[in-house]
Amino acid sequence: MSEPIGERIRRAPKVLLHDHLDGGLRPQTIIDLAPEGHVLPATEADALRQWFEDSASSGSLERYLETFDHTVAVMQTADNLRRVARECVEDLAADGVVYAEVRYAPEQHLDGGLSLTEVVEAVRDGFAEGEAAAEADGSPITVRQLLTAMRHQARSMEIAELAVGYRDDGVVGFDIAGAEAGFPPTRHLDAFEYLQRENAHFTIHAGEAFGLPSIWQAIQWCGADRLGHGVRIIDDVTRQPDGSVQLGRLASYVRDKRIPLEMCPSSNIQTGAAASIAEHPIGLLKDLRFRVTVNTDNRLMSGTSLSRELELLVDAFGYDFADLRWFAINAMKSAFLPFDERLAIIDEVIKPAYAVLATMS
């Protein structure tokens, strides 16, 4: 009897570039760590998991944002942050992820009296513990931090300086996140210009809830290395009556420059950026050879894993392991890890494993 496709996908080495630490907690961990007086919507793990998924899929932005009130509330001490970070790594390793960049906003974890540096160091230590546990379990993984600034706040320069300060200690880049409409990335130009002067890497959430202007600003004004989501670049791609496809100037630039798109299919559906997996722009963008990567965004809220995201794409678009290898190498090429380390993972981990998987197809 042949091995189920889902299990083969889980065993395949995968690379994850867009995953939020506060969006991937285990429900039982939230219950265990909930501070005194914090009322959860459910006190049994399966019921709490279902609440998160239902709330994120409700179509209500207010209810979706409420989910993070509960996860962030339990991430306010060093011990709790270390546990959440360690479990994140363990869960990703169990899913066959071999390299991940996990992002979070340090400024959201100060209510318990921690400093920004203490937050970063607690997450660093948790990641290291998780990597050691995964190695001992025979599932080696490398995980690095992306430090996120909130675009509606005014701490982006402070967080950018924090990212540069820890770039030799587990932090590989910077990000901004939060509501796009009304909070353009150009509000944080000083932070992006500082990062460029420091030869630092950064990605920008753009082109999910807001369209092409957000993408254009992120690239042409701010100099983003990657686009968080970037799904709305499809608005600059036109199908002609004869079936051919014409790219607008921005879409052409994104493809020509090989700017990576950190796409998160299930999450994009929850936020209304795509109607369904089958209708997700990732299908056409892959056909057009954009630098597409597949990601999870918020694993708890979307009830997902990277293996599940890939399996959904296999079902929708008929992808095989050659396509999944393409996604993994795309992501590894686009990672903020130093070149020699990226190349080692591609040549020594990804390619050999997919060569074996190809013989099993």
TrEMBL record:
<dbReference type="Pfam" id="PF00962">
    <property type="entry name" value="A_deaminase"/>
</dbReference>
<dbReference type="GO" id="GO:0004000">
    <property type="term" value="F:adenosine deaminase activity"/>
</dbReference>
<feature type="binding site">
    <location>
        <position position="297"/>
    </location>
    <ligand>
        <name>Zn(2+)</name>
    </ligand>
</feature>
<dbReference type="GO" id="GO:0009117">
    <property type="term" value="P:nucleotide metabolic process"/>
</dbReference>
<dbReference type="InterPro" id="IPR032466">
    <property type="entry name" value="Metal_Hydrolase"/>
</dbReference>
<comment type="function">
    <text>Catalyzes the hydrolytic deamination of adenosine and 2-deoxyadenosine.</text>
</comment>
<feature type="site" description="Important for catalytic activity">
    <location>
        <position position="229"/>
    </location>
</feature>
<dbReference type="InterPro" id="IPR001365">
    <property type="entry name" value="A_deaminase_dom"/>
</dbReference>
<feature type="binding site">
    <location>
        <position position="18"/>
    </location>
    <ligand>
        <name>Zn(2+)</name>
    </ligand>
</feature>
<dbReference type="GO" id="GO:0008270">
    <property type="term" value="F:zinc ion binding"/>
</dbReference>
<keyword id="KW-0862">Zinc</keyword>
<dbReference type="GO" id="GO:0009168">
    <property type="term" value="P:purine ribonucleoside monophosphate biosynthetic process"/>
</dbReference>
<feature type="binding site">
    <location>
        <position position="20"/>
    </location>
    <ligand>
        <name>substrate</name>
    </ligand>
</feature>
<feature type="binding site">
    <location>
        <position position="205"/>
    </location>
    <ligand>
        <name>Zn(2+)</name>
    </ligand>
</feature>
<feature type="domain" description="Adenosine deaminase">
    <location>
        <begin position="13"/>
        <end position="351"/>
    </location>
</feature>
<protein>
    <recommendedName>
        <fullName>Adenosine deaminase</fullName>
        <ecNumber>3.5.4.4</ecNumber>
    </recommendedName>
</protein>
<dbReference type="GO" id="GO:0046103">
    <property type="term" value="P:inosine biosynthetic process"/>
</dbReference>
<feature type="active site" description="Proton donor">
    <location>
        <position position="208"/>
    </location>
</feature>
<dbReference type="InterPro" id="IPR028893">
    <property type="entry name" value="A_deaminase"/>
</dbReference>
<dbReference type="GO" id="GO:0006154">
    <property type="term" value="P:adenosine catabolic process"/>
</dbReference>
<keyword id="KW-0378">Hydrolase</keyword>
<feature type="binding site">
    <location>
        <position position="20"/>
    </location>
    <ligand>
        <name>Zn(2+)</name>
    </ligand>
</feature>
<dbReference type="GO" id="GO:0046936">
    <property type="term" value="F:2'-deoxyadenosine deaminase activity"/>
</dbReference>
<comment type="similarity">
    <text>Belongs to the metallo-dependent hydrolases superfamily. Adenosine and AMP deaminases family. Adenosine deaminase subfamily.</text>
</comment>
<feature type="binding site">
    <location>
        <position position="22"/>
    </location>
    <ligand>
        <name>substrate</name>
    </ligand>
</feature>
<keyword id="KW-0479">Metal-binding</keyword>
<dbReference type="InterPro" id="IPR006330">
    <property type="entry name" value="Ado/ade_deaminase"/>
</dbReference>
<feature type="binding site">
    <location>
        <position position="178"/>
    </location>
    <ligand>
        <name>substrate</name>
    </ligand>
</feature>
<dbReference type="GO" id="GO:0005829">
    <property type="term" value="C:cytosol"/>
</dbReference>
<keyword id="KW-0546">Nucleotide metabolism</keyword>
<dbReference type="GO" id="GO:0043103">
    <property type="term" value="P:hypoxanthine salvage"/>
</dbReference>
